[in-house]
User: What shape does this take?
Amino acid sequence: MAAEHRRVVAATVANARALADNLANQGYVFGGGDASTWTMRKARRRGDITVTIVITSADPAATPWGPPPGPRLG
Assistant: This one.
């Protein structure tokens, strides 16, 4: 099976943090991102799963973003 790519849209940074926390509980790790896009990855034997969280109301000037909670890719 090939790698899977999923895209999830979050309305606010708080929603994105909740999604990232839920994914971290499922074994995903933070793979990088910026103020409006976070990437979470999970390695599998049959191909990696990549989830991109897109934040629609991210305003880098108004809200300091910081990476989501949980483990990070080394």
Q: What stands out?
A: Strands lie at 4-10, 29-33, 37-42, 49-55. The mean pLDDT is 81. Residues 4-55 form one domain.
